[in-house]
Every structure is written in structure tokens, then in C-alpha cells.
């Protein structure tokens, strides 16, 4: 099978299903993968999680596309989880696994028809060599107004072009997607592509693959990238991004991105403490925890940060983009919603500093202009988490039943936070974020 065709099939599969993630680096606690990746030299892979069937698949990832047209190298590998046996997969072997998953998930589907549809999306190398001029032409008001099905036009024509420009390093995909969003916002303000944050792009992709009668979690609308915070989800570097001195407590709280080589064993110890096991439920073996972070950190929907008190790591929090999280199924999520999970390691009240730690988390998240409101879904079993959130301005919206827990869905806007801590609205955060924002602004201005 032609590698471009196989890449198109994988890209289409990723649009329709959620059992995949990026995987970064060579693991320390997974010898089978470490040995194999050390030989091949690849630092990035797409991981397909078929653990329910006793396996996972790793495909070398050459380019991750924000518009969904990723580029892969081959062969892929299948790893049998029970004995860590690794088998190289050719095109036929990979398609067989994908087909089996489709058949298990939707036994009534016509497998031949579906696999045929999966080949419909080109990968970037197949797109004709075009430049920014063609992008601007396609993005013109006249062209958008002519489209009877704007979502289909976006998926089949504009997104492959954006991916091609990004793949060839001719433009930044996120900047281009932001321009598309602004153009749609101006030309079609009442169109469902803008009104419904689930968006017709999602429905278009799903119906194209499986038909309207099937329900799954397709890849979210790429136009949401207009509301994407790089500072929160893909921070640059591992140095501190924010610090603040609290004179009353005489402490300095700082926040830095999670560093897997520095922090993995530390958070493994934290999560295996008695007070963490019941609520946090991440008391996993090191190998499993490493897999979690190697799939989390290179992705484009969530990131982990470490909070330090006077230079000593004390707490961990994750920021996630709600529209790309399962939580978006439980309320009318907006693409400007960002959620957080927070874990404070010490049990000694004199060392916890819950209020300063949580304030710094909110300072950092609300400093990003893409954020509209913050969202939380703490377990109803954790009274401490509920009280801590209420202390800084969160309000419970309703109780929801997630697959893994019963939770208090709560929201917080800047104004609610500042009403609790009026002085905090005057805090100016000077970090590398300004450089990121400036680069993004220049990318948009130069097109």
C-alpha cells in the first residue's frame, strides 16, 4: 500500500476516534519500548491505545498538524502488553488492527465501505505546491459566500492547504486557523459553524466516516485554535513561568512546566501517599505513570505544572482545554473554557499554603487572554477541594457523573476571583508568555 494512502487512513481514523495520543521521548521504565526506540531513533510517535484488546500501536510521527493532517513514517509497531513482545507492522497489519477495532466498536457497519472512506483525506505532501497567495484566495469573502456547505469546503479544501503550509514551514498553522476563524466570524456570524461550539465541522467529519446514526467523539473543530493558549498547553522551556511573593506568609510561590526527567519520580511518590490515593487515583507503577506523562506533555489539549514554595516543589496542577476533554460532553462548553486539576502534596497544614498556591494557579491561567472562564470538576468526596475552590471564587454549577467519579462541576470568572482578592487584579505577570504572544501576533500580521 502507498504510504501516502496509509497516512490518509490514519489521519481519518484520528478524526473519528479518541483512543490515540502523541508520545514523546525514549522511556526510562519501559525497557521494551526504550530498546526499540533507541535503535530507530524516533523521538515522537502516535500511540493508538488498543489496551482493551491487549496491545498498543506506535507509529513514528514526523509532523503533528494542528489541522489534523499529520505525517508519519513507517513501519509501525505493535506491542503485546502482557509480554512486551514488539512486532513490526506493515500496511496490511496496521489496517487489520484498525479494521478489527472498527468492527468491534460498530459491528453493523460495512467495513469495506468505511475503509474506503478513510482514504479520502490527503496528507500534506499530496497537496499541490501552493503558497500564502492561494490561501488568501480561498479565504476571500467571495469564496466563503459561494460555498453551499462551508464545513465540507473547510475540511476538503482549506485544511489540507493549511497543513501543507505548516508542514513545509511556510506558515504557522495556528495563526492560519485563527485567521480562518476571524473570517468566518465576520462573514457568517449566525452560521452554525460559529454558533454551535460542537460545530458542523465535527458533524461533517463524523457523518463522512460512519454515518449520522453512529455516535463517537470525533476530533474537535480545528478553528477552536483561535482560543488556544500556547502558554498553558505547550509552554516553551522548563524554567519558571510565574512567581509571586506573599508577605503575610513570607513565602515565594513559583510555577514551572513539568519536566519528566526531573519530576516523574517525585510525583510518583506524591500520588502514592495515603491522602492522594482515594481522591487523585494515580497511584500507578512508575512505568504506567511515565506512559501517562509521555502521552500528556506533547499533546495539544493538556499540560502539567509544578508549584514550588521557596524553591521546594509542593504542588502539581494540570491545565486542560475543555473542548478537547470528555468534560465538554457534560455542559455547553466554550472554546475559551480551561479546566484545572490541583494536588497539594504536604499534609502538614503549616506546609500546605493552599490559598497562595491556588491564587498563583489562577493568576497564571487568567493572565492568558484566550481564557474566558476556569472550570473544575473535583470529586464530591473531596470537601477540602470544594472549600479551596470556593475560597478563590469558584461556584458549583451542578453535580455530574463522570465515568470515573461523581464530581462538582464548578466555574470561575476573573471577576469572581478578583471579588475575593481585589488586589490580585492589579498583578502584572511578566513571563516568556509575552514573547509567545508577540510571535503569534507577528505571524498573523505578516500574512
From TrEMBL:
InterPro entries: Acyl_CoA_acyltransferase, Acyltransferase_MbtK/IucB-like
Pfam families named in the record: Acetyltransf_8 (PF13523)
SUPFAM superfamilies for this protein: Acyl-CoA N-acyltransferases (Nat)
Domain of life from the UniProt record: Bacteria
Source organism of this protein record: Chitinophaga rhizophila
Name of the protein: Acetyltransferase
Acyltransferase MbtK/IucB-like conserved domain mapped to chain residues: 256-305
PANTHER family linked: LYSINE N-ACYLTRANSFERASE C17G9.06C-RELATED
Pathway connected to this protein: Siderophore biosynthesis
Gene3D superfamilies in alphabetical order: 3.40.630.30
Amino acid at each position: 500500500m502507498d504510504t501516502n494512502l496509509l497516512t490518509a487512513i490514519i489521519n481519518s481514523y484520528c478524526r473519528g476516534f479518541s483512543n490515540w495520543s502523541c508520545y514523546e521521548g525514549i522511556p526510562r521504565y519501559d525497557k521494551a519500548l526504550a530498546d526499540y526506540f533507541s535503535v530507530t531513533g524516533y523521538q515522537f510517535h502516535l500511540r493508538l491505545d488498543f489496551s482493551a484488546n491487549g496491545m498498543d500501536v506506535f507509529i513514528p510521527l514526523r509532523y503533528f498538524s494542528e489541522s489534523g493532517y499529520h505525517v508519519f513514517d513507517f513501519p509501525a509497531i505493535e506491542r503485546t502488553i502482557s509480554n512486551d513482545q514488539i512486532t513490526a507492522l506493515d500496511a496490511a497489519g496496521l489496517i487489520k488492527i484498525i479494521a478489527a477495532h472498527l468492527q468491534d466498536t460498530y459491528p453493523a457497519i460495512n467495513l469495506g465501505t468505511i475503509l474506503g472512506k478513510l482514504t479520502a483525506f490527503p496528507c500534506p505532501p499530496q497537496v499541490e505546491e501552493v503558497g500564502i497567495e492561494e490561501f488568501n484566495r480561498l479565504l476571500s469573502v467571495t469564496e466563503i459566500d459561494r460555498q453551499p456547505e462551508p464545513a465540507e469546503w473547510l475540511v476538503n479544501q482549506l485544511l489540507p492547504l493549511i497543513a501543507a503550509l505548516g508542514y513545509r514551514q511556510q506558515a504557522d498553522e495556528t495563526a492560519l486557523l485563527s485567521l480562518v476563524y476571524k473570517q468566518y466570524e465576520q462573514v457568517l456570524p449566525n452560521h452554525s459553524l460559529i454558533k454551535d461550539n460542537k460545530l458542523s465541522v465535527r458533524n461533517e467529519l463524523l457523518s463522512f466516516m460512519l454515518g449520522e446514526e453512529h455516535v463517537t467523539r470525533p476530533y474537535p473543530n480545528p478553528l477552536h485554535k483561535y482560543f488556544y493558549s500556547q502558554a498553558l498547553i505547550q509552554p516553551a522551556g522548563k524554567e519558571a513561568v510565574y512567581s509571586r511573593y506573599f508577605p503575610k506568609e513570607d513565602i515565594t510561590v513559583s510555577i514551572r512546566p513539568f519536566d519528566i526527567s526531573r519530576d516523574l519520580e517525585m510525583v510518583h511518590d506524591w500520588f502514592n501517599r495515603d491522602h492522594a490515593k482515594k481522591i487523585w487515583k494515580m497511584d500507578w507503577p512508575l512505568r504506567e505513570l511515565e506512559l501517562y506523562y509521555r502521552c500528556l506533555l506533547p499533546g495539544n489539549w493538556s499540560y502539567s505544572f509544578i508549584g514550588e514554595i521557596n524553591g521546594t516543589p509542593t504542588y502539581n496542577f494540570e491545565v486542560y482545554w475543555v473542548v478537547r476533554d470528555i468534560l465538554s460532553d457534560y455542559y455547553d462548553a466554550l472554546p475559551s473554557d480551561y479546566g484545572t486539576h490541583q494536588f497539594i502534596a504536604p499534609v502538614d497544614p503549616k506546609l500546605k499554603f493552599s490559598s497562595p498556591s491556588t491564587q498563583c494557579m489562577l493568576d497564571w491561567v487568567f493572565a492568558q487572554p484566550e481564557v474566558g472562564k476556569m472550570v473544575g470538576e473535583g470529586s464530591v468526596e473531596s470537601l477540602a477541594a470544594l472549600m479551596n475552590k470556593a475560597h478563590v471564587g469558584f461556584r458549583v454549577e451542578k453535580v455530574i457523573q463522570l465515568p470515573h467519579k461523581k464530581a462538582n462541576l464548578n466555574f470561575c470568572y476573573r471577576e469572581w476571583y478578583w471579588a475575593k482578592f481585589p488586589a490580585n487584579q492589579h498583578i502584572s505577570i511578566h513571563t516568556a508568555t509575552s514573547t509567545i504572544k508577540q510571535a503569534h501576533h507577528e505571524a498573523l500580521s505578516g500574512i
